[in-house]
Amino acid sequence: MKIEQSKRAAAAAFIGTTVEFYDFYVYATAAALVLGIVFFPQTDPVTGTLAAFATFAVGFIARPVAALIFGHLGDKFGRKKMLLFTMLLMGIATTGIGLIPSYNSIGIWAPVLLIVLRFMQGLSVGGEWGGAVLMASEHAPAHKKTFFASFAQMGSPAGLILCLLVFRAITSLDEKDLFTWGWRIPFLLSFVFMLIGLAIRLGVEESPEFKQMQEKQEIVKFPIKELLKYYWPQVLFAGLSITIGTAGFFFTNTFMITYVTQYVGISRPTILDALFWVTVFEFIAMPVAAWYASKIGSHRFLFWAAILCIAVPYPMFMLVSTKNIYLIVLGITLAVIALSSLYSVVAGFMAEAFPAKVRYSGISISYQMIAAITSGTTPIIGTLLAQHYAGEWLPLALLFSFLSLLSLIGICGITRLRKRHLNQEKIEKTQQPQQIA
C-alpha cells in the first residue's frame, strides 16, 4: 500500500506540476509572441516586448509572497490542502487572462487586468512547487527520495511540450486571427487541465512525514520564524543552487524565442518547432539524470552539472549563429540538457537540507526568492543586452555562465553545511555514552 501511494504521489506531482507549468509557460510564450501587440499596441515592437516581459516578471514578484504564505500553511496544516488550492487558483487566473478584452477594446484596463491575473499565477506557482516536491519525496522510500522528487521537476518540460504544441497550432493562423482570438485558446484550455489535475490530486493521501509530525505533536507554531532563526544559511545556499535551473529555462525557452526571431531571422513557427524537440530531449534526459545521481550521489552529480552549465552557452550561441535550424536545435539542446539535469536533481537535494517541520517553508522560500530575482528578470536583461550589443552573443553567454556560477556556489554551500551537520551529529553520539556513564 505504501509503495502504491508513493507511485501515486509521484504521478500526481508530475501531472499537477505539468498543468501548473503549462499555465506559466503559456504566459511566457505569449509574452514573447503576441502580448506586446495585444496589450501595448501604442509602442514600437521592442518596447512592446519589454512591456510584456515586465508583466511576465510580475508573476515572479508574487512567488516569494506565495512562498511565505503557503510555506507557513503547508508546514502547519499539510501539503495536500495547499496543492489543491494552488491548482484551483492557477486555473482561474490563466482562464481569466484568456477572457481579457484587448487594449483597443477597454484601454488601460486591459494591461491592468493582465497584471492582476499574472500576479495570481505567480501566487499559485509560488505555493505549488514546494508542496509537489514534498508530496513526491516524503511518500518515497528512503533511498529513492531524490529520484521521486524529480517527478515534480519533470512537470516543467512536460508543461512546456504541451504549451508548444498548442502554440504551434495557433501560430499557423493568419496574423489577424492570431492577434484577435487565436492567442486566447491556450489560456482557455487551462480550465480543462485544471479539472483533470484536481481529480488526480484528490486521490493522494497526505504526506506520511507530515502525519507523523502531527501524531508526535511536532508541528511548529511559526515555521518561518523557526526557519529564518536557525536555518537561514540553508535558505541562502539552497536558493543559489537552483538559480540556473529556473533562470536558465526562461533564458532558453522565452528569451531565445525573441532572440532568434528578431536577431537571427528565424520565423516564429520554426523556432517553436525547434524548442518542441529541444524540450522532448530535455524530458527524456531528466529522469536519466535523476537515476544516475541516485547512483553516484546528488552532491557530486550537481557539482559537475553546474560546471557543465558554466561552459555550455558558448557552443550554444556558436551553433545558433549558423542560422541552420538543425544546428540551432543542437545548440539549445546542449544547454537545456545541462541545466535540466541539474534541475531534476536539485529539488531532492534542497529538501534534504531542511528538517520536516520547516521543509515546505524552507524549499519554497529558497526557490521563489531566487526565481523572483533572476528568472523574472532574465528575459528582460537578455533583451536589453541583445539590443545594446546587436550582433554579439558573448555578453549573453556570459550572463548564462554567471547564473550557472551562482548555482555552483549554492551547491558547494549546502554540501558544506550538510557535512558540518553530520560531523556534529557524530560528535554528539560519541559524547552521549560518556555523559550517561
Could you provide a short overview of the structure?
The chain has 437 residues and is an all-alpha fold. It has helices at residues 2-33, 35-39, 45-77, 79-99, 103-106, 109-139, 145-153, 155-170, 175-182, 184-188, 190-201, 208-215, 223-230, 232-241, 243-264, 268-296, 298-311, 313-320, 325-351, 359-375, 378-388, 394-436.
Description:
85% of the residues lie in helices and 0% in strands. With 437 residues, the chain is mainly α. It has one domain (2-427): Growth Hormone, Chain: A.
Q: What is the domain tally?
A: 1
Overall 3D shape: globular
* H and E string: HHHHHHHHHHHHHHHHHHHHHH
The Rg value, from CA coordinates, equals 22 Å
Give a quick set of tags describing it:
437 residues, 0% strand, Growth Hormone, Chain: A, mainly alpha
Topology at a glance:
Blueprint: H1 2-33, H2 35-39, H3 45-77, H4 79-99, H5 103-106, H6 109-139, H7 145-153, H8 155-170, H9 175-182, H10 184-188, H11 190-201, H12 208-215, H13 223-230, H14 232-241, H15 243-264, H16 268-296, H17 298-311, H18 313-320, H19 325-351, H20 359-375, H21 378-388, H22 394-436
